[in-house]
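Worked example 3 (structure in, sequence out).
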């Protein structure tokens, strides 16, 4: 299975250009689109959601 942590990290950092580049490279390597989506992208979005929810809790009690 491909190491998709770089996609996750780029997504969390908000580096959209890097996310697109890394996703394209994975597609070219033959990584399944469902793996890129579930393991790389959705995992990153879940972390961003947790951070956002946490910040809302501590900033607006």
């Amino acid at each position: 299975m491909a190491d998709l942590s770089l996609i996750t990290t780029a997504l969390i950092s908000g580096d959209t250009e890097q996310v697109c580049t890394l996703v394209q490279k994975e597609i070219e390597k033959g990584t399944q689109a469902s793996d890129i989506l579930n393991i790389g992208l959705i995992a990153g979005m879940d972390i961003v959601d947790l951070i956002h929810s946490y910040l809302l809790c501590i900033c607006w009690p």
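Notes: The mean pLDDT is 91. DSSP finds three helices and no strands in the chain.
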